[in-house]
Amino acid sequence: MKLILIAVAMMFGLFSVMPLTATAAVTTVTHKDFPVLAKPGQKIPLGGDHYFIYGFSKPPKIGTAIMKVEIFTKDGTVDKSFVVKGDADMPSMRGAHAEGDKNFSISKKGVYLLPVRLVMPGDWEVKFTFIKNGKSVLRGVYLFDI
């Protein structure tokens, strides 16, 4: 009787034998909508008449890091007329730590600021969207590790 119960259980997969190694589906993350940006601290063209410089205020580590963006006209004048949105996440755990698009705040000096919660070591990204007069001018992503 015991053998019959085991045979029936095996037929229904209750005692199926699984290999010791599991294979996980690998998702390739593409950045077609968000091209990878040049390194922080460099001038990056923004539309035809502007450029921006971005980077963290301090090297990022676990906790809250402040992402800064400064936008200038071609002649070097600070421009505060853009809306800048940002979203931080871990590409290897897409959605687990994302907070969604948040508007950068603008300081009195015209620096766009966004607090970024970095909750664990690993690969991270900050996606940027620059909007002028209601239209998206540029989208890009910064990839980094902590």
Overall description:
- With 146 residues, the protein is mainly β.
- The protein is 7% helix and 42% strand.
- The chain has one helix at residues 2-11, and strands at 44-46, 50-56, 63-73, 83-89, 102-103, 105-106, 111-118, 123-132, 135-145.
- The strands form two sheets. It has a five-stranded antiparallel β-sheet with strand order 1-2-3-7-6, with no helix packed on it. A four-stranded antiparallel β-sheet has the order 5-4-8-9, with no helix packed on it.
- It is globular and about 40 Å long.
- The protein starts with a helix and ends with a strand.
pLDDT average, as an integer? 85
Count of distinct strands: 9
Q: Helical proportion?
A: under 10%
Task: Give me the secondary-structure category.
Answer: mainly beta
Order of helices and strands: HEEEEEEEEE
Spatial order of the strands in the main sheet? Answer: 1-2-3-7-6
Key descriptive features of the protein:
5-stranded antiparallel sheet; mainly beta; 7% helix; 4-stranded antiparallel sheet; 1 helix; 146 residues; globular
Short description, anyone?
The chain is mostly beta strands and 146 residues long. It is built from one helix and nine strands; from the N terminus they run αβββββββββ. The model is unreliable at 5-30 (pLDDT under 50).
SSE blueprint:
Blueprint: H1 2-11, E1 44-46, E2 50-56, E3 63-73, E4 83-89, E5 102-103, E6 105-106, E7 111-118, E8 123-132, E9 135-145
